[in-house]
Amino acid sequence: MRGSYVIFSLILLVAGFLFSYSYQLTRESNRNQEITTEQWDKEYEIRSQLISKEEINRDLQKELFKKQEEVKEIEESLKDQKQVYYNLVEDVEKYRMYVGDIAVQGKGIQVTLEDSSYVPEGENVNNYIVHESHLFSVINELYISGADAISINGQRLSSHSYIYCNGPVVTVDGNQFPAPFVISAIGDPNVLLPALNITGGIVDQLSYDNVVVTLEKLENIKMEPLLQEKKASS
Description:
This is DUF881 domain-containing protein. This protein has 234 residues and is α+β, with helices and mostly antiparallel strands. It contains five helices and eight strands, in the order H-E-H-E-E-E-E-E-E-H-H-E-H. The protein has a five-stranded antiparallel beta sheet with strand order 3-2-7-1-8. A three-stranded antiparallel beta sheet has the order 4-5-6, covered by helices on one side. The protein starts with a helix and ends with a helix. 16% of the residues are buried.
């Protein structure tokens, strides 16, 4: 009987231990489940915030790209305006140079026209001297070829200049000059000279009219601005 009591006690002890262990295991499992749920909720919240931030960043990135395109368009517009202003200033300088408002210097050419040294007996002398038409032919060709400024015997020409022949002399803006007539032109000599020397061009026509023509390249030609009173009188 005593042995049965001992065995029964052992059974109860083991059963109690197993019950206690099972209870502790269940509590631990529930606690882990609770922690896992809390962690998941927190992770979900962080993930939601991250997604929200990413969406905001995408919107900001789109806005940045839009602003960059607007800045690019503005820069292109300013560049075009800058080029327009630059062209306007360049044109103004050319016009001021053309009318003689500013001094100018640079490379160019010099064209000298002289009366023929030989007049055959019985021929008309007027057919062997330089006339204003000859000067006009040279001057027009030089302007067409890109000359920036032109002078005759040091007298700078303007848009209002006048030239006419008066016997053996030529009057330029009220100033009389005898032959030879030295026409100076500022511009690219590699363009101006070929333009005059072209076959059948100005030089050939002048030679046919018995005018002696001399062409020369010059490294530096300087012309002073025209005085206001001279331009007004012209």
